[in-house]
Design goal:
The complex is a heterodimer. By secondary structure, chain A is mainly α. Chain A contains 3 helices and no strands. The radius of gyration of chain A is 14 Å and the shape is flat. Helix content of chain B is 62%, strand content 8%. A 7-stranded antiparallel β-sheet of chain B has the order 4-3-2-1-5-6-7, with helices on one face. The longest helix of chain B is centred in the last third of the chain and has 44 residues. The two termini of chain B are 47 Å apart. The relative contact order of chain B is 0.11. The chains are: A mainly alpha, B alpha+beta. At the A-B interface, helix 1 and helix 2 of A face helix 1, helix 5, helix 7 and helix 10 of B.
């Protein structure tokens, strides 16, 4: 329970932020729309990821999907941030 | 949905719910009362400082300039002027004054005036119960409470989501199921589910908006660093916030008449302007921020920065065109505060919030009844019962007695707000201790309700004995809130005493049947 809580809190937030940053980089939209949809979406996704972690029998199962997703998402953001793409 | 997923979601739902139940109960309870913050504030204040209904507004500029001289206000400091409104019928002005000797912080001064005559009513608001309850709602009056409440709100959202996972299959089928003739566990289970399902959109809206209020900083910092490469003013501008931070030029400039400026702007925009913030007053760089509520639309907040020197609203310090972030946030925040709504809709919000409080208590009772049957770890069970049930029930008499004190304590008592808050905290603590000792949860809730009802009835009596004629005069003048709030307290007292009495009677019957059952077992044994 504690492990699910801690990992859900931190990984859930980072994953949600990274995915919405991907959306911001990949889909061109005005900044005010991005900020609003991002702020609403990140909080919903954060709680959603935590629920996913809590509902799993062990952390292993969701981590198998969440970790590659997180690193993939961070990788895309890094490429945009460093100007390699975009 | 797999049985395993349901079991895990239920396990998390139970434990998370139990752990955050007391702060969540306090947040919803205080939030429910805060929906009537203007009415409560008027009820507390207006009998002491009665007003006549009038649209006349005393000249503001002489008052502001007198205060600048009297308090030696630094021109760099913002002076906030709040005009009489539906929320509060007085004129209030607040600002910070330079540090005094032996003081590390600048002193904050808040003054209240009669808006018609300009007479100063008090320099330290003695009626702070409504504000105290509001603060309980958003920061629990704890250090770093804003973030603690944010975290609790996040877990509340997880509770809503896990609740959906658990109930998804039965959402429609068992929507109206309430088995009133079954045992406590079934009844509490049905109550928890029915209220949870009915209040789902409401709960979700509160969870989301609460998170946006309290934890937005978590997203602002990374957004500023990654999306804006540290350019915080650019982020603020895209988000529609203007932070006025202009340096003083040192060149004095004659300031315009504030009443004339207000009238002109009200006529030009049709906005009901309720506040002006004065920045760099008396300097060439002076800017006034006018704030109010647009009369059109659902959540039309109005904000405009007026540059005194150019007698204009320059583009550089005003948000141009529609901004989705400003509009969207303003809609969500209006939904949270229900400030778009009349008394009827706010009452509906209130009922839903109290329903959520009931759902939290039902959830706790479910947890306790389940563990009581197993009869393992009685000490842990008593601690959990004291902390959860005791805390949730204790806040009801704590609030009722604080309301009573807000009425009967004379306005001149030194540290009056602190006395009220201390009594509130003391009774809450007593509730926790009583919950720890008292084993019969039904009677315990019943006593909490009855004590609260008694306190509210005494408050109603005090209202009439101390201010009966004033309340009637205010009502005749068109100020309905003080009398209305007093009547609402009576209605609440009646409701609480009815439910409390029923719970006490039921509790006694249950105890008797339990005693009878154990005697039978002894005889048979």
């Amino acid at each position: 329970m504690w492990a699910k809580t801690l990992i859900g809190l931190f990984l859930g937030l980072l994953l949600a932020m990274s995915i919405f940053l991907n959306i911001g980089y990949l889909i061109p939209m005005p900044r005010d729309i991005l900020l609003f949809s991002g702020y609403v979406g990140i909080f919903l996704a954060w709680a959603g990821f935590m629920t996913w972690f809590y509902s799993a029998e062990s952390l292993k199962k969701p981590m198998k999907i969440a970790l590659p997703l997180f690193f993939g998402s961070v990788g895309i953001n890094s490429l945009f941030y460093l100007g390699v793409i975009g | 949905m797999k049985a395993e997923t349901l079991r895990n979601a239920l396990h998390a739902h139970g434990w998370l719910g139990l752990l955050i139940s007391v702060p969540l109960f306090i947040i919803f309870w205080a939030g429910a009362i805060t929906l009537f913050h203007p009415e409560m504030q008027r009820w507390a204040t207006m009998p002491h400082y009665p007003l006549a209904q009038s649209s006349q507004l005393t000249p503001l500029t002489p008052i502001v300039e007198r205060l600048i001289d009297q308090y030696n206000i630094d021109p760099k400091e913002r002076i906030s002027v709040r005009l009489p409104s539906d929320h509060m019928p007085y004129l209030s002005i607040f600002f910070r004054v330079p540090k005094e000797e032996n003081s590390e912080k600048k002193r904050f001064v808040s003054l209240t005036f009669n808006p018609q005559t300009g007479e100063q009513l008090h320099d330290h608001n003695p009626f702070e119960l409504a504000d105290f309850i509001y603060q309980l709602h958003y920061n629990l009056k704890l250090p770093q409470g804003l973030y603690i409440v944010g975290l609790i709100t996040l877990f509340f959202m997880v509770l809503v989501f896990t609740g959906i996972v658990i109930q998804l299959k039965n959402l429609i089928k068992h929507f109206f199921m309430y088995r009133k003739d079954r045992n406590t566990r079934n009844k509490m289970n049905d109550l928890h589910n029915v209220v949870g399902v009915i209040s789902l959109p409401y709960g979700l809206m509160y969870a989301l908006t609460g998170l946006m209020f309290n934890l937005l900083i978590l997203l602002q910092v990374p957004s500023a660093l990654v999306l804006y490469q540290g350019d915080i003013p650019a982020l603020s501008k895209d988000a529609g916030f203007i932070n006025f931070n202009e340096e003083l030029t040192g060149n004095p400039l004659a300031m315009p008449d504030l009443n004339a400026l207000l009238s002109k702007q009200r006529a030009a925009t049709g906005v009901n302007i309720t506040g002006i913030n004065l920045h760099n007053y008396g300097d060439e760089s002076a800017v006034f921020r006018l704030a109010g509520k647009r009369k059109d639309g659902f959540a039309g907040n109005y904000n405009a920065h007026y540059a005194v020197k150019t007698d204009s609203f320059p583009e550089a310090i005003n948000v141009q065109g529609d901004n989705v972030f400003v509009e969207g946030s303003s809609i969500l925040f209006s939904l949270h505060f229900a400030n778009f709504a009349g008394l009827d809709l706010r009452f509906l919000y209130f009922v839903l919030a109290i329903g959520v409080c009931g759902m939290i208590v039902a959830g706790n009772v479910l947890w306790i009844v389940k563990r009581q049957k197993r009869a393992t770890h009685p000490k842990t069970l008593a601690v959990m019962r004291g902390l959860t049930l005791g805390g949730c029930v204790g806040i009801m008499p704590a609030t009722a007695i604080a309301i009573l004190l807000e009425r009967i304590l004379p306005a001149g008592v030194s540290d009056r707000p602190e006395v009220v808050q201390l009594v509130f905290a003391g009774i809450l603590l007593l509730g926790v201790i009583a919950g720890f000792i008292y084993q019969h949860h039904r009677r315990f809730v019943g006593w909490g309700l009855v004590i609260s009802a008694v306190a509210l009835t005494v408050t109603f009596a005090a209202d009439w004995l101390m201010f009966g004629q004033t309340l009637l005069n205010l009502h005749q003048q068109g100020f309905a809130s003080p009398l209305g709030f007093s009547m609402a307290l009576t209605a609440t007292a009646l409701l609480m005493s009815g439910i409390g009495y029923k719970l006490l009677v039921q509790g006694k019957a249950v105890e008797k049947s339990v005693d009878h059952g154990s005697k039978q077992i002894e005889i048979n044994g």
